[in-house]
Queue: 4 jobs
Job 1
Amino acid sequence: MAGSPTACRSPLSAYFRPVSFPASDSVSTALEAVLARCVRMIRSVGARHGLSEADLDDVVQDVRIRLWRSCTTSEQIERLGTSYVYRAATTAALDLLRQRRARGAAVTESVDDHSDRIAASGGASDEADARDLEAQVLSAIEALPLARRTVVRMYLSGYEREEIADLLGWTEAKTRNLLYRGLDDLRARLNKTGITWPRT
Amino acid sequence: MASHLTDEQLREAYLRAVAARRDPRRTACPTPDALLAAVRREGSEDRRLLVFDHAMGCADCRGDLELLRAIEASRRADVARSVESRQWRAPLYILLAASVVFLAALALWKRPQHAAPDDVFRGNGPAVVAIAPSADTTVAGGPLTFSWHAFPGARRYAVEILTAQGGVAAVRETTDTSATLGDLRFDPGDYTWWVRARLDGAEVRSSARRLRIGR
């Protein structure tokens, strides 16, 4: 990783730098280049799990302004390296989430909102059964021990075993073991309520 | 009541249940800092499990978590790539210095003789033979697979992708004769690639091939 943020202005002096876009062409080009590398990576990592594009856009815009305020030349931006950009992105993301909660809006677009697709697959007459099923599934999951429950929730949310292991800092073997036991446990609990699985 | 349920139906029922029970006030939700700590594996395992357990059962927190996770995972991948690149470059300097000394000594020793055909010299002797992608190929920006012929005595190979400016865009080491860079995405543009074979006390590489990555 080349360079460090010390090449740029101190945060305090940067804070007072007025923002007056558009920046010069060379600064803009350097800024967009360093941002693009990081954003492409973040988007590719988050795409599978419904990362909100709107949230990412907000974060990127915040980072863009922070970079532009703290660096006056394209050379400074190029020296920053991506590690600084990731740190700035993390700070911007935390600020975004805190502000959202402070507003009490809770308007995050759900990554799990499959209701349209699900509704299309069943008729209105099935709605009550569907609600019962949902309640049973949640109830059965909540009865699982914590480690199994967490892994099962991650799996049902669409995370691959490798991703679960990475998030939890576990070995693949431990993750697999807990996931299979958790799913077996879940099926057994649901079986008791009359829900069965097709044989594979 | 459904009496038969596939895994996919179970997943859909779960996601629908999670989406249906959102709390706009989010009073039970962990703070953004707690989510970040969990993503960074900071704090006790029990604490992190509780945070993940909540986040996976709360559509709002899962959206928050995913934003932080994507940034953190990208940062870690970037650091790993940087370390990998540095790890390769450091011994490379030593190897280069050693190979210069070795070649000088070999040249003195062999001055009156002809070099054996299987001696390894960078540039003049046998080289690693790259197979694919062929020279001056344009490929899509998806996962890139590079392959080459085995080189006698090679212990490891490193495929290097260089930018048009000569900077290292990616390095992947392997003991195999192919490497797929499925986890990396490259900007569209012109690149050069080659393969270095690391032998005992020496290294030899293929000729450089130009590669154009399209959109």
Note: The radius of gyration of chain B is 26 Å.
Job 2
Amino acid sequence: MAVPLIFKTIEESGISSWIRDSPSFFAYWFILSFHALGMGLLVGASVVVDLRVLGVARELPLSPLKGLYRIIWTGFWIQVASGLLLLVAYPTKALTNPDFYLKLLLIALAVVFMQRLRKRVFDDSSLSEPEMMSKGKALAMWSLVCWAGAVTAGRLLAYTYYYLKYDYRG
Amino acid sequence: MNLAHIHLLLNHVPIIGTLITLGVFLVAVIAGHDDMKQVSLALFSLIAILAIPTYVSGSGAQQALNESSKVSMSVIEAHQGAALLAFIFMEITGAVSLAGLLRFSRTVKNPWTSGPARVTLLAVLLLACATSGLMAVAGNTGGNIRHPEILSGQEATSSIGAVGVELMMTVHHFVIDSSMWVWPILEDLHFLGLILLLGSIGVLNLRILGFLKQLPIAPLHRFIPWGIAGFAVNVITGFLFYLGMPDFYILNIVFQLKIFTIVLAGTTLLVFYCTSAFRSLEHIGPGEDAPPFAKFIAASSIVLWLAIIVLGRYIPFGEVT
């Protein structure tokens, strides 16, 4: 399958080559650092919510943890912004690798599970705490599985690509 | 100043520190003094954290030596091997101490005489004895490097050192040569450990700072063991990276900064959240404010852990070529 020419155009743009090749402190590693921080916020806060729903720290009142969704969404948007910049730097590398689509799928699923957890468990004030936990159990489990999978798929992107750039095979 | 200075400065901490703490610990156990038991366990964990820069700076000291002197390779190798074993035992002692500290310092009723507590204390005692012995060998073989006048023939090599060198080679081979997937899997575990650590420590710190104020503080400590587990995963995987590619890390300034920051953050975590020294915090109920000092510690802790993540990402940037 031919690699779309648009990837080459993107790679030849100033911003793409700057992120990729600049020795500046604020280029590639800076963006990658934000991607790691965003992951820590997004997945870290999700994991705390999930663990509590699954029964860790039972003495802790559950409903105020809804406040962690602000951190989850902050992390999410940091990931979107930094992820898009990384995609601009290496469009061919990411978009020709099936693992990249697997990662996006797992993130989408994890976010859907987290949002369902919010709607069904945290937004329903008629529920008692044991009801919240039993209603959220499966969602919390699946969100943990998808987050772990998304992080793993993301980490493996560095090892599974076919093309590093439009003109280079990996 | 180079890494040899830092190594010489730090290397007495695990050797003498372990011995002194072992003494205090013995007195505590014999006298049945619970606060002293707690302090001893905290000290073992603290020394385990400080042993990290001690071990790592040793490789840098070796490089400084290689450039400038005629010390025999076998003397250095004996020290390296013994130091590796001493380091591993120190980390295990620290981990078991920390587990005991978490479990038994935080209960209200005196738990130190319970069955599980006795087993933990006995395990720490045995591990600390083994560590002290290995530290003595590491210290002795290390002294040989700079004090050839105390060397008497066969002492130049040590059988314990040889075991350590063998182990170092095996681990290096496993990480680098056994499969191309070992390194990526270790990296993945390192990321998952980071998430556990940041999530659990972060939520407690945010509450102390006044975010999520409807939460009482005391039950948030239930998340700390998960954070500690993440930290343990990262110390192990991080050490495997180091043994896999020591030359990539030793002189890398970003790596050195990261280790320094880990010592700061790890010490904060240990003293503040794992002992009962700051127990007043636990009476803070829903809607109440934490004292300014606690807020200061919580803010520093968050900043330090985020800095560690960023520094970790920048290690390739600091590569010495």
Note: Chain B is about 75% helix and 0% strand.
Job 3
Amino acid sequence: MNPITADRRHFEDLALGEVVALGKVTVTKEMIISFAREFDPFPFHLDEEAAKRSLLGGLASSGWQTAGLTLRLLTDAFLNKIASAGGLGFSDLKWKRPVMKNDTITGTGRIIELRRSRHHPQWGVLTIELDMRNQRNEPVMTMKLTNLIETRTQDVVVEEQPEHPYDVETGHRP
Amino acid sequence: MTRWFEDITIGEPFPLGSHTFTEEEIVRFAEQYDPQYFHLRNAGAEHSHFGGVIASGWHTVVVGHRKMVDALAAEEERLRGLGQEPGESGPGAGVNRMDFLSPVRPGDTVTYTLVVSAKRPSNSLPGWGILTNQLSAVNQRGEPVYYAELIGFSRLRDFKMPLRLRILGALTKIPGLGKLLARSR
């Protein structure tokens, strides 16, 4: 028994279609420049004049910062309340609109897939679809995030089904 | 890529360099963006199936992005050194898939490689091309850390704005008419 996750919701406690409301965060100029300096030093994320001349039309956060802030909101609202056993990745990430200086982003997550791991009965796999919006309710980013979650009961027969394309423990493809 | 769209070779591996992850930076990233117990210090990471602290997958991804930005800047310098005018890359459009394949632990060194697997001129952004970028990351034992497929933009060198778009562009500058045209599109 994992003492850290024992009291959290497990695989069996989640429902398909469940909606998670995320908190919100306002993206300041200082946040944009500090993230860009470390991870995305394109001139259009560092300098307001260069940003105005770019496709973004003004100082906007790195798409990766928008994703990171979304992950933080998801961790606070959901991943730290379930018996999360780590991320498997994500797909269909779309940056729909730049997040401009002083925009406030929030959003929802919806569980769109729940299945047991065939080879690892101690885990289930959950996919949550995220829909992030700005303060005008305009979509800024969508993605599907896939995460492992601990199961409570492990003597369940699992039907033949598609598996994740690698072994989670060793990182090797079959 | 900081080459003109026309100069980007499909399938050519573009080495982005390596990064060694320290526990300090793993924890610092996690505290800001992914504060789950197996990414933090003194939070019980030893109870997880990882058996200790591992980097957030997203941390390994944004470091890979940083390596790409640095490599593009270096390529830009190289082209200038040859007396050529470098191209221009635009903001990313999205990620088709990102598979985290094995955990990154403190002290691990991750090596990143970019391959452009497809390109085509953009329909929605005249003058720009759309690239399919394959990014792979492997650790010092040669084990895959992640594999990703991203969509990016690169500017076309040989582009002339079609007459229709030039007229439309001029019309949108007339006060009142611009908003009307934008709405009708």
Note: Chain A touches chain B through 45 residues (CB under 8 Å).
Job 4
Amino acid sequence: MIMKRNFEKKPISYSIALMHKPLFIIWFLFLLLPSCINEEICEDVSTVPVRIGFYFDDQDADQPILLAFDSLKVQGLGNDSIIYDYRYNVSRIELPLNSNDQSSTFLFYYPGPPEIAHLLVDTVQFFYEVNPTLISMECGFVSFFELIEVKHSSFFIDSIAIEDKLIINNFEEHIKIFPLVDIDDL
Amino acid sequence: MTTFSVALYAQDENKTDTLERDFEIKPFVRLGLDISAIGRSIYEPEVRQFEFSLESEILRDWFLNLEGGIMQVRSEQETFSYSSNGYFIRTGADVNLLGRPDEFQNDLVLLGLRYAYSFLQHESPYYFLENPYWGEHSGSIRQTSYHTHWVELVAGVRTEAFNNLFLGWMLRTRIPLFRTREPDIEPYYIPGFGHGKRSSPISIHFSVYYRFGL
């Protein structure tokens, strides 16, 4: 006895599934194509910077208020190169951590008369673990970091808060610095 | 005459019902090979993964699954060297949402759950990092082991393209459970899971299957 497949009696879900075989096989091969597309784009950076914002902690506001320094110079301790050379109107900065060490120290110079400029300075020291990570075969290794502690002097810095201890390849802000601010100046 | 015709029709209906409901499940094992790895090896030849699956219908429309595979990563470049070897196993069950109106209906729309475990060993004998401000950093990472446990929700279809030969795809979404804590280095590729921290929440796998009767 020859039995016929009884398509009329199959559930509605069968029709929804669109199981028409020739179409399915073509579709199957077509779907293989996207897996061959590689859109890896390497950023020209192998060390992710620590991202810092300057804030005023207003007790009456829900969120700290972003501040802008009139001018700021930043330099790594033991390095002659200047990262920010009295840049104007600075609210956020990015500092490169040293992958060869477990800590990096930066000097923050504030504007003032030339004869005392070297005295208007704060020191910020970051302690961290270095986590070298292979992000892709095209881009190779990148240094990620895990912040452990941040120490600072208090010439113009009131406090520092670690917002995100993992310094990886995203655009999150890691550190909030709260300068000493006279509320009448705001 | 009219009465006789109606009686014949009723008999046919009964016969059809009997055929639909009472066919036996013939024992079988369906062996599957993941052919997505072929596509992946074209754009990422450093990663080689072989993956197979075995499944059997233990109850009508319920399939028991065992999946496994091995993986190897090798890359030696000017700025780094990295190698990794590992394996994975997954087990779970699928339910066929289509149902089987008759024994010739072998196409499947599946929804399932898996428990998965993966193990790998990896190392980086050397790597160099450019740092424009502080200078170049170089280092090496000794060989270490890495374990991962996770569960997967899977959904997909299989259709019988030729007699006993099936084509199909599965969507997989993974929920990590446990993994090695604070490893010296995050694995580049976790066998059966995908790119360590870059793994996409949903992946699609294409497979070819052959059904062996028992």
Note: The first helix of chain B runs from residue 2 to 22.
